[in-house]
Amino acid sequence: MCVFVYRVDNESEPAVDRAPMRFTEVYLGHVTVDDFRRNPRSELGTQTATLDRYGIAKLRQSWVYLDK
Questions:
Q1: How do 22-28 and 63-66 pair as beta strands?
Q2: Distance between CA atoms of 61 and 51, rounded to whole angstroms?
Q3: Burial of 62 by CB count in 10 Å (0-12 exposed, 13-18 middle, 19+ buried)?
Q4: Which residues make beta-bridge pairs with 5?
C-alpha cells in the first residue's frame, strides 16, 4: 500500500498567493487482508477498506518520507 499525506493552502486570498501543495509524509508498505478492519456495508454506500490500528502501525513503520 502506498499513502501520500499532503498539506494544501485553500484559505489564503487571493488564490494566486496560496502556498503550493506540500507532501508531508509518504508510506510504502506490504499489508495483507488481515491488516484491515471488517466494515459492514451500509444501506447508502459500499463497503470501504480501512486498515485496523495494527495495520496502520505496520504501514507507518514503512515510511519513505517524513517532513518534520
A1: antiparallel
A2: 14
A3: middle
A4: 25
CB contact at 8 A, 24 and 63 = no
Instruction: Report the SS3 class of residue 65.
Output: strand
Q: β-pairing, 63-66 with 2-7?
A: unpaired
What's the length of the chain? 68
Domain ranges of the chain: 2-66
Considering all CA atoms of the chain, what is the largest pairwise distance in Å, rounded to the nearest integer? Answer: 47
Residues 20, 12 contacting (CB under 8 angstroms): no
Ranges of the chain whose pLDDT falls below 50: none
- Give 14-25 pLDDT, tens digit per residue: 999 999 999 999
Residue with cell 459492514: 40
